């Protein structure tokens, strides 16, 4: 049995396992089991993957995010898991691939390219076996099978996302009840096809070199000085037209841009210093004097305006430090001014964080306020990488790689925490009963915090806790149908409501 046949059997095993684990089941321990089986088979059939460092750390992130689904079982944990699987799938395509954004892009492409490669391998095998046995049905099968494979995942998402469409499809299959095509059979086959799409790209990688790998080969962390090409002197009376302008071929143009950049950063530093001094006076030192309307404006309008301004500040630094201005010997004033500008933007980010914290202290915690803190942490990291770029003359590819890794790790961390329960615990512990936003805790957040609200209501029977608002959560039953869907969050909630 050759390796292609082993991979096909592995896909069939994974498809059956996926249908068994997920048919009429919630996401839980079944996801971790399937990931473990998928990775075990992939490393058995493709042992070279274990030597590819980006594949190894992405697999570690995948298992961690799968464990997060088992523990916290939130939409964020699922998002982190699915995004990480795209990274695993992308890095499995080429050993040379290491750029995280290319890995994510290649993973998405491989979801559809993998089944195509499997189909081609099967077609080549069948052609080799029956080269002298022609069949009139074979051309039609070749033309119909591939469109059906491509349509399968779309049908799965349409059925799970549109209840009315599911009823229509179920009614359609009722017409063929005499042929024993039951909805159960249909769903099992559909789940098996989805598992085939998820695993084919991992077991059947591309055999040719990707364009993205060629592009990546030109990436480097250290910035290289570009030198203008020497142009031959044209004969008298002849004009030479260049296809593209030479960057800073004239030294005076470079010095002109240097003076312009110094003026720009000098002006921006003065302007931002005034803003930071204002925040120091009214946000850092005298937050108690801020009214509720001022706090609300600071968070809902001012916060995002300042976040956008920090992004624009990063763009200004990238614009002026994009080329030979990094290597100008007499540019002694520019790097300090740029670093001062970055430092002041870091202070501005801290000011935004303090505004957000004051709002949390006054009105409680919410997911949007948690997101603001994470965005600010990512922006501080981005400012740090820009600081390194200015001082060490680093490239854009370094910035995209470093910040891409930071975004991915932040998503994995966000998915590993049960923010619903954390927000509920914090608000119930720090706010007075009449100040608690029961609408947000009950109607906006997921129902996994029902046991916390019930416990609070039992502990405060005589207080105006508006407990009637969450009575609708009391019938919350344990959503775990069987062992496949077990997860700690639902188990804990169901146990607390008994």
Give a structural overview:
The protein is mainly α. It folds into 3 domains: about 5-125 and about 140-215, no CATH class; about 250-395, no CATH class; about 420-495, no CATH class. The chain contains 18 helices and no strands. The protein has helices at about 5-20, 30-45, 55-70, 75-90, 100-130, 135-160, 165-175, 185-205, 210-215, 250-285, 290-320, 335-365, 365-390, 395-415, 420-430, 440-445, 450-460, 490-495. Helix 12 runs antiparallel to helix 13 (about 365-390), helix 13 packs antiparallel against helix 14 and helix 17 (about 450-460) packs parallel to helix 18. The radius of gyration is 29 Å and the shape is flat.
Which key phrases capture this entry?
single chain; 498 residues; mainly alpha; 3 domains; 18 helices
How are the elements arranged and paired?
Blueprint (H helix, E strand, L loop, with lengths): L2 H20 L6 H17 L7 H19 L3 H17 L8 H30 L7 H25 L1 H12 L8 H21 L7 H6 L34 H34 L7 H29 L13 H30 L3 H26 L3 H20 L3 H12 L7 H7 L5 H10 L28 H9 L2
Helicity level: 55-70%
Given as residue ranges, the uncertain stretches (5+ residues, pLDDT < 50) are: 238-249, 468-472, 474-478
**Mean pLDDT metric:** 80
The proportion of strand residues reads under 5%
In short:
This protein is mainly α.
